[in-house]
Every structure is written in C-alpha cells, then in structure tokens.
Automatic annotation (TrEMBL):
This is Outer membrane protein TolC. Keywords: Cell outer membrane, Membrane, Transmembrane, Transmembrane beta strand, Transport. GO terms for molecular function: efflux transmembrane transporter activity; porin activity. It comes from mine drainage metagenome. The gene is tolC_18. The lineage of its organism: unclassified sequences, metagenomes, ecological metagenomes. Signal peptide: none annotated.
Length: 383
C-alpha cells in the first residue's frame, strides 16, 4: 500500500504575435493525490516463508518446554540428593551410637580382664571411620541444599524425608516399554524441535525453488488531480485502476538451482539429526524404564537384607556377650546392617528419580508428578 500527495507548478512564457515584443509569463499550479494498494495473489516464496516462520515458532515452543521440564527434573534431583544425604547422616548417627556402645563394652571387658586392648582399639578405629564418613555426608547435604537454592532462589531450612509406608512399588503405567517410546516420539521436546527443523529446511527449499515460479499480484490505485491553467481552471480528474500484475522469471544465472541444492543439504542434515534424536530418546526411555523395573526388585531384596542383618547384629551381639563371638564380628555385623540401610535408601531415591527421568525423556513430566512425590513425604521436617 502506498500514498502519494504532491503539488506541481508550471512556468509558461509565450512570445508576442506578429513580431511584437509582447510576451505572457504565467505560473500554473496543480495538486495530485494517489493511493495505491498491492495484494499478492500467488507468491510461492512468501507462502514458504510463512510456513518457515510457523515452524520456527513451534521449535521455540518445544525448546521452552524442554527447559521447563529440565528445571523440574533438576530441582527434584537436587531435593532427592538432599534427602538421601540427610538419611545417610541419620544412619551415621545411629551407627556412631552403636559403635560407641560397643566401645564402652570393650573397655569395660578390658578393665575386667575379659577382653583385650586390641578389641578396644578396633572399636575406636571403627568409630573414627564412621565419624569421617558422616562429615562427607554433611558436606554432600550442604552442596545439595545450595543447588536447590541456585535453582529455586530459596535455601531449604527443613526437608521432608520419604515416608516408606506411603511410597508405592509399582511398575510404570503403561507397563510396556514400546508404548512409552511411542509417547516419547510424540512429546519429547528434542524430537519435536528436530521435526520443526525439517519443516524449516523444506520451507527453505520451496522458497528458493520459487525463484523459477511466476508471481501474481492484484494492483489497485485511485488518483485525484486538480489543475489551474487557463484552459483547465478549476478542473479536477479522478481515476481508478484495478488489474493483475504477472511477473515471470526468465533466467537467474543458476542462482536458484544452487540455492535449492544448498537447502537440500540442510534438509538431509535435519533428517539425520531427527534420526539420532529418536535413537537417543529410545535408548533413554528403555534405560529408565528398566531402571524402574530393576529398582523395584532391588528394593525388595534390600528390605529383606536389612531384616536379615538386623537379626545378625542381635545374634552376633549375644554371641559376643556369651564369649564365643569377637568384637570385630560385632562391628562388622553393625557395618553390614547400616550399609544395607544406606543402600536401601539409595535405591528408593534412585527409583523415584528414574520415574522422573522416564517422564522427562518422554516429554510428559508435569508439576502434578512432583505433587505426587510430595505426597510420599512425611509431614515432619528435619534440618
């Protein structure tokens, strides 16, 4: 669309007639206004550019969704790490109490002549080892809290530990991995973004190929002109023109073909990237799906291991008090028990995070999933 407005002047000098020296010197004014509009009827390049723009916006939306999902996953992972460190600290405190009790017994037996100094030293060494590990877990807890602060802007003063009674052990739903893979191909942000890159590349091919195609425009104009010469005093002219303008390219010197070839190469690259993304996502989905299935079995086995080790500690302690078990055996039994408890806690949090990662890889991780995890936590907070 264009608008033109102008004013013109004509300077007219007329010599006299019959050899006389009379001449006429006059200035005439004129005004003109023109309004014109052009509407594309067929332009393949413009249509391709429009589709490219839509694909670019869709890709941006997919990448934004990826960032949101990634943030949810990272916050959840940091929180679970903090919970695991907190439980390890609690187990360490309980183990310190057990070893301290064992040390007191060893010292008492030594004073009574029933034990040896070696038993006392072994208990002391074990106690120091437990204290050293506790310091490492305290450091890990502080790191996890700082990570949470960097992600959320709030330093967590209290943490709600996992309530084992509320924590369900069930396979993913659906329980067929291929269905999760299909869901991932439909929703994974990386795959969606790669598909949009293909659309952009296809649009670029069409846009460059359009250099061989004609363009058709609808053109309309409206003009108004007024003139004040001696012959047209007070005259005005109005004109309206409507028509089609067809432009047909003849020869572009090979530029169009070269541009199409270059765009085709980008399309091949985009297709390769999509294939790689699909394979990567499929591998991730299978990995996290199997991690959940195997994690459930590990947790069930470790729960039995904890029960067995609890009985073993009791039996070994009684045997030590009866004189046919050594102090080292008691300390080893205690270490195995608390190691089993730490492993069990680790597998529980690993299972929870595997569920998060499965949904993240599939592209369906939402705030509601985090709320579900929150429902598994205890009401009471610990520092």
């Amino acid at each position: 669309m264009s608008l033109y407005k102008g004013r013109g002047f004509t300077d007219s000098v007329n010599p006299g007639y019959g050899g006389t020296t009379f001449s006429s010197h006059q200035v005439y004014g004129s005004d003109s206004d023109t309004f014109s509009i052009r509407q594309s009827v067929f332009n393949l390049a413009n249509f391709a550019s429009y589709k490219e723009a839509k694909a670019t916006v869709a890709k941006s939306d997919a990448l934004l969704a990826k960032d949101n999902i990634s943030l949810i996953s990272r916050v959840t992972g940091a929180y679970l790490d903090a919970l695991q460190s907190t439980e390890n600290i609690q187990y360490s405190q309980a183990q310190q109490a057990s070893v301290q009790s064992q040390l007191s017994q060893a010292e008492q037996r030594y004073k009574l002549g029933m034990g040896t100094v070696t038993e006392v030293n072994e208990a002391k060494a074990n106690l120091e080892d437990v204290k050293a590990k506790a310091l490492e877990w305290v450091s890990n807890l502080e790191y996890s809290k700082r990570m949470l602060e960097s992600l959320s802007g709030v330093y967590p003063e209290g943490l709600q530990l996992l309530n084992v009674e509320k924590f369900p052990l069930h396979a993913p739903e659906p329980d067929i991995v291929d269905q999760w893979i299909e869901k991932a191909w439909e929703n994974n942000p990386d795959i969606l973004a790669a598909r949009q890159d293909i659309k952009v590349a296809m649009g670029e091919i069409t846009k460059n190929r359009a250099g061989h195609y004609p363009t058709l425009d609808l053109v309309a104009s409206r003009s108004y002109t007024s003139s004040d010469t001696n012959y047209t005093i007070g005259s005005t002219y109005n004109s309206t023109d409507i028509g089609f303008q067809l432009n047909i390219p003849i020869y572009s010197g090979g530029h169009v073909d070269a541009a199409v070839l270059q765009a085709s190469t980008k399309l091949d690259q985009a297709n390769e990237i999509l294939t790689v993304q699909q394979r990567t996502v499929e591998a991730d989905v299978r990995k996290y799906f199997n991690a959940i299935i195997n994690g459930i079995s590990k947790i069930q086995a470790l729960e039995e291991s904890v029960k067995s080790n609890e009985l073993a500690v009791v039996g070994t302690q009684k045997g030590y008090e009866a004189g046919f078990r050594t102090n080292v055996e008691v300390l080893n039994a205690q270490e195995k028990l608390f190691a089993a408890k730490r492993d069990l806690a680790h597998e529980r949090y690993t299972l929870i995070y595997a569920q998060i990662q499965l949904k993240q890889s599939t592209g369906v991780l939402r705030d509601a999933d985090i709320q579900e995890i929150s429902d598994w936590l205890s009401v009471k907070s610990v520092n």
